[in-house]
Every structure is written in C-alpha cells, then in structure tokens.
Amino acid sequence: MILISHKGNINGKNLEEENKPDYILKALSLGYDVEVDVWYDNGFWLGHDKPAYPIVTSFLKNEKLWCHAKNLEAIVEMKNNNIHYFWHQKDDITLTSKGYIWAYPGKQPIKESIAVLPEIHKDDVSNCIGICSDNIIEYNRDNNEK
Questions:
Q1: Quick count: other Cβ atoms within 10 Å of Cβ 51?
Q2: Which terminus of the chain is more exposed, N or C, with fewer CB under 10 A?
Q3: Are strands 2-6 and 33-40 parallel, antiparallel or unpaired?
Q4: β-strand partners of 44
Q5: pLDDT digits (tens, 9 = 90+) for 31-60
Q6: pTM greater than 0.85
Q7: Per-residue DSSP letter, 18
C-alpha cells in the first residue's frame, strides 16, 4: 500500500503548515510519500490557493512526491523537467504522469487506484494500491496491524 501524506499532513489537517517545504520534508523523513500543490510563475512554488513558497526544481524531482499542478504553466514545466504530476479539479479520476489512477474523494472503490481523502466519505479502500490522507498515520497503523 502506497501511503501518501496530503500536503505534508500525517495526523490531521494543519492549515498553517501545509505545503511548506520543511513540513513536506518531515513527512518524507517519516517514510511517507507526499502530495503537494505546485504552481509555476517564473519558477516553481508550493501553495494551495496561490503560490506561497518558492521551491527549486530539484526538490520536486523526489520520486516520493505526487505533484498536483495548480496552473497550466506548472503542468508544462513539470512535464519538461520529468517531475511526477497530475491535474484535477472535480473529475472522478485523473491519471498521473506515471499512469496511476488518482480518484476524487467519494469515488471508491476503484481497483488499483489511489484513494484521496477516503475518510471524508468512509470510502472502501480494499481495492486501492494507495491512500492520500491528512491522517495517513492512521492508515499506516492499520497496515501494520495486518
């Protein structure tokens, strides 16, 4: 099971820290993959609603990052830099640049997909290959108990 921290969160939402580079690095250091929100405006930026934290391209090349493009320029630049990315708004699913099925909350079960925020709708994740959650530590505990 691929365990993906949503914006760096591992044990609940932390709006003040989400998408901050140090917060992302902490989740990575704990062994989690991390979904981050990426903008491009004369360089790469992290941030949910707007570009907030400047980031170097090499930061995004980490194979454990799942980069959510927030503007079209980000898609082009991530594609040109061989960074793992995806784009979605409220689509039921989207495919990441590495071919993973990224499923919108509430759309499970979808075989071999990444369930996004399954706790919101109490999604069945039994057929998933991964989970992206603000509470990913809980799914890690569940995995370790099996």
A1: 20
A2: C
A3: parallel
A4: 40, 55
A5: 999 999 999 999 999 999 999 999 999 999
A6: yes
A7: T
